[in-house]
Amino acid sequence: MPYVEVTRTVKADPAEVFAALSDMESFPRFMDNVNEVKVLRREGNTTESSWHVTLQGAPFRWVEADVFLPEEGRITYRQLSGDLKKFEGEWRIAAADGGASVTLTTDFEFGMPMIAGLFNPVARLILRRNAEQMLEALEKTLGA
Q: Dihedrals φ, ψ of 124, to 5°?
């Protein structure tokens, strides 16, 4: 199963970064590949959200469970239904010199073993590039 992890230090307070990442419905305003995010249900520190993104011209849709853990500086996500067999990971935010260290992890599986060997390396590159663009967009949005 492919795994991607990208870290970037942004010039912003970790609490400000956590708040920005917790407002997932705003992602389409500053992340080009995120077309739509809707929070379907909110209960305590969890949400269920619906996502529509475009990666390399291909549309992907899924519903995920999100858990917000501000005291740990983490937001976890796990696909409940959607286009992939597995899609999960987390955002980790920690204090760093000059701001906040932000890490995005993604663990995914297409669910097509016959073509996984061909697609997984390409998908890993695409998801890495996408994660880097998301962190860059986050930094620009926070005014850093």
A: -60, -45
pLDDT score at 129: 82
Contact call for residues 81 and 87 (beta carbons, < 8 A): no
Can you give the pLDDT at residue 32? 83
Helix axes 113-141, 14-22, angle to 10 degrees: 120
CATH number of 3-141: 3.30.530.20
Every domain of the chain and the residues it spans: 3-141
* Tokens coding 99: 């701001």
Return the CA Rg of the chain: 15
Q: Is 104 helix (H, G, I), strand (E, B) or coil?
A: strand
User: Which pLDDT score is estimated for 51?
Assistant: 95
Cα diameter, the chain:
46
Residues of the chain with pLDDT under 70: 1, 111-122, 143-144
Beta bridge partners of 6: 104
Distance CA 78, CA 86 (A): 8
Residue 99's DSSP bridge partners are 96
